[in-house]
Design brief:
Four copies of one chain form a homotetramer. The first copy, chain A, has about 220 residues and is mainly alpha-helical. Chain A is about 50% helix and about 10% strand.
Chain lengths: ~220, ~220, ~220, ~220
């Protein structure tokens, strides 16, 4: 747990006017991101300072479980927003490059993936994360109901779409219809090159792991 | 989503007598693992058959959100157990190799990591997953309260310790003390080479991703 | 399960200008309330139409569990908002009547309860529900992280304070400070008589139950 | 929050041999119940000692939110088991009395309710609580995924069926089939008079509340 200190970064998206997403929304949003970084750092400090020989481990209530659990809320709150802000500031348009190639193949067409993304964005309570699975290289639109509810491991996030109300209420209204308009605005501002850079890292991670030849056999005892 | 069919594998742990963990417990446990594979496959089939242009996306209740969310319970139910069964059948003893090296460094001693693992095992409601973070290469004992509660992404699991009651009630009793005895038994049966193989893949994945040179800069807009 | 159809009601709060909470926020908020009623009714219909002799009961994924679980999200989404809208439209000021009497006694002063309410409002992710316990008649500021996360039974809600972002982002901004300003605005618009009416029903419910003389004895087997 | 200290009670079920549920299972189970009482009391003490004027209210991580949330796990862990142990020690058989009358009417037959209960018991991850709604007097088999996940307020529990693995693994095995056998055993040992006593209190609570004449009108502003 020799964690670095998480630091809020600067993003190109804050240097320009986005199409439909206001500067006020972005500025408020950035404060939440700063809050997640601060709290993640605080949780890391507490987790590093525990004396694990002495501390109580209790599954009903104990400071150990409370900090360990809510640390993941803080950590993903930071990571989710770090990815999301990185996407914004682009020109939208159709997905291109390797990402388009993969979703075209996996969803039988880029537009069908877009349909699935939009429906996921209406069905989630917090985020849609398009995730790349390190076991089989598949992509899936994961629904997340909060910063950390229903994340999975062995997954590298490629695209993060915030559907918490803070992302759209000021600009589009706190209704299902407002959320839909916001998702369209997100797609007008997304930088697909940034998404492709995430995907390139995800595929390289899988290739790195596969090259070890240490993947589990079909029959483990063999 | 061109997912392969998940298939329950065979494991060396089922070919021998474990120390303290009964064959009956293992056999019942395997049935749960088969159930997770079956349900994950069923969810994948449903998710593949949805017509995303037509389907309702609703965050209160909709089949799309229900299947998407509980799919992660099924998927991690499969992956968690696949890893756990792969660990068992070893000779226990002290952690060695690269894994020992890393936890020694990160927790200021292998025994301090063991303390932390045991306290985490008492404080979790489902699993402890020792996870390797693909961003910074740190290890952490993640508490999970069910198959999918409080997992994080960008994390490769290295060691999976089941603390659901099905893992220990028959052999050690449904009490906090019974759970502690079970954790000791788990450590007597763990195959540290298997843990090291997971870690080798995790580190190779990080190296693969890092080698792309596409990691986020400190200032994203730069 | 011979449920009535839930119907969105009309509220006095929508007939006037609130202090600090805009009509636009209230109108958008009402649409969410209508959505919860509609979905709760839909879930009730599905639950009534299941053939329980034939249906699959599966804890990993099954339509039965999905509808049963998300029904509580819809139902409390309706009930939470029904109570909240009923509170608004008042003149705020200090709590009075029986409610003031109880929180004065239980929290060692009305202002200390107000402190506790405000801190709870910053610490919750969805709602603060001041609940009256039917077992012992105590009041507690329950934190709820969504429409249905961490509710308890045998509790009658007396005051419901929505801290979902939809309640305050448009008028006060999506920041912790914006939420604090919103909570002050809520307190300027609350109708304490309405809160007292809830409390009167809660106390009457406890008295009704107690009068049966059927409460559990200290020793159940006696 | 002038809470009484929760005290584990004695139950008739522990004075006799149950049919199919072993004394060892019951003894281990009682220790969990004692643990919930102890932790609920500890959380109450912490919650009472906070200085609410000074304490941090933070929704990402703060001791206030951690204790407030996990207190409900402890509290319902106590209440769930208190009810469950109270049911046991009876002679099973067909439901009778007012409870039978209500489920017969609401589920179109007592056997159809039993079908629904059994399917719910397979579909839940923690408890099935047959709850009486104080708003409309309806009964529903609520699925709970842990001690406190998906409880609802304004509900009085009438029957509590524990399907955590600690309730059945030792006697019936940690499989879906083992759980089914355990549910049959529960029904052979249930004391329907005890269930009817809970229902009598629930109905009296509703009558008490209704007699105030303070229920919400169809049009709140009227």
């Amino acid at each position: 747990m020799p964690w670095d200190e998480l630091k809020p970064r600067e993003f190109a998206a804050f240097e320009k006017d986005l199409d439909g997403i206001s500067r006020q929304t972005m500025q408020d949003h950035y404060k939440l991101y700063e809050g997640y970084a601060k709290k993640a750092n605080e949780c890391r400090r507490i987790l590093n300072e525990f004396d694990y020989a002495q501390i109580e481990g209790n599954q009903v209530y104990s400071p150990l479980r409370a900090v360990s659990v809510d640390y993941t809320f803080a950590l993903l709150g930071y990571k989710n927003h770090d990815l999301y802000f990185g996407h914004l500031g682009g020109d939208g348009g159709d997905p291109h490059g390797r990402f388009a190639e993969l979703v075209d193949r996996e969803f039988n067409g880029v537009n069908k993936w877009l349909d699935a993304l939009k429906k996921a964005a209406s069905a989630a309570r917090g985020w849609v994360i398009v995730g790349y699975d390190l076991n089989d290289g598949s992509l899936f639109n994961y629904l997340m109901d909060s910063q950390n509810l229903w994340a999975v491991y062995n997954m590298v996030p490629v695209l993060a779409l915030d559907v918490y109300e803070h992302a759209y209420v000021r600009d589009f209204g706190a209704t299902p219809d407002g959320r839909k308009q916001y998702v369209e605005a997100f797609l007008r501002n997304v930088n697909w090159d940034h998404v492709n850079r995430q995907l390139a890292q995800a595929e390289a991670a899988k290739q790195g792991a596969d090259a070890t030849g240490l993947q589990e056999p079909a029959v483990a005892g063999a």
